[in-house]
Amino acid sequence: MSTEQSDQFMFVDQSVARLLEHAESAACLAFCEAAQRMYPLGGIRALRDAGGRGGAALFYGPSDPLNAVKGPGLSGPVEPSDWDAVEEVYRPSGSPVVVDLCPLADEGFVAMLMERGYRIGSFETVMTRRLGHGREPPSRPRVSGLEIRGVEQAEARAWSRVLDAGFADGGEPMRFAVDIGAVRSAMSSSIMLLATIEGTPAGGAGMSLHGDVALMSGAAVLPAFRGHGIQQALTARRLEIALERGARLAKLDVRAGSGSYRNAVRAGFEVAYTRPQLVRDWHAV
C-alpha cells in the first residue's frame, strides 16, 4: 500500500484506490457466487476479471438492485472486446449496465464508456479509515439497554428484514432476488451484527473482510430508534472486530451530506473520493 500519510490525513493515490476497489469487487464476487450456489435456478451470474484484472460483473436478475460492475479500469486500459463481454451479461435481459466507477480509473476506459452512451445515475462518497498504528476505534456510545451481537445463521433472514425496514424509511422495502442475510450467513468472510434495545431489534449492520480491508456495508436503524447513537455504536463495534482480525483499512460508502456521512466522520473516517455510478440503458442506444 503506497500512501503519503500523517496523523491528520491519508493521501489516496491509485494504488490505495485499487486496494479498496478490488477488495470490494472480490467481496461482491464472493457474495454473488455464494448466491449462485444457494439459488441455482435463479439465473444469477458472476463474471470475474470484468474489463480486465480485478473487476467483477454481477447479475442477479432483470434490473435487480444488486446488479453492478465493480472495480473496472484500475489496472490499465480496458479492451473494447473485454467490455463487450461485460455488457453481454446484462444485454439479453434488457437490464441496464451499472458501473461503480472509481475516479482514478484509466482515462481511456472512461472515454470509452462515454462513447457508448453511459450516463451518470448517482454519486456516492467512498470513505476510509486506517486501523492500528495508534489509531484505535472510537468508543461506543453508551445507550441504555443497547446490546450489539453477532447474528446466528438461523436469524439471518430476520436480520435482513430489520435492515430492509431501516433502509425503507417507512416506505416499501427494496426487493432483491436473493435474501441478503441468508447468503451472507453462508460466507466465512461475512460478519452480521444486530443491535437491540432491551431485547427489541433496533438496527443492524454488516461487514466483509478481504485481505487488509474491512468493507463495512450499510448500517440501518429502524425509525423508532433513531437519534440514540445506535449507528455510531454499530460502526464502532465493526471497527473493533476489523482491528482484532488484522485489517489495516476500513471502507464504507455513504451519500454526501447524509446522517451516515456525519457518523462516519465522527468515527474517524476520511473522504477518499466521490464515485459516480454510470449507467447504460439499452432502450436509449
Provide a count of the helices.
7
Sheet with the most strands? 11 strands, mixed
Structural class: alpha+beta
- How much helicity do the residues have? 25-40%
Strand order of the largest sheet: 1-2-3-4-11-5-10-9-8-7-6
* Gyration radius from CA atoms, angstroms: 19 Å
Based on DSSP secondary structure assignment, what is the total number of beta strands?
11
What does this structure look like?
The chain has 285 residues and is an alpha+beta fold. The protein contains 7 helices and 11 strands. The protein has helices at residues 14-38, 80-90, 107-115, 156-168, 180-184, 230-244, 259-266, and strands spanning 45-48, 56-59, 68-70, 97-100, 119-130, 146-150, 190-197, 200-210, 213-221, 249-254, 270-280. Strands 1-2-3-4-11-5-10-9-8-7-6 form an 11-stranded mixed β-sheet. Strand 1 (45-48) and strand 2 (56-59) form a beta hairpin. The longest helix is centred in the first third of the chain and has 25 residues, at 14-38. The protein starts with 13 loop residues before the first helix and ends in a 5-residue tail after the last strand. Residues 1-6 have low confidence and may be disordered.
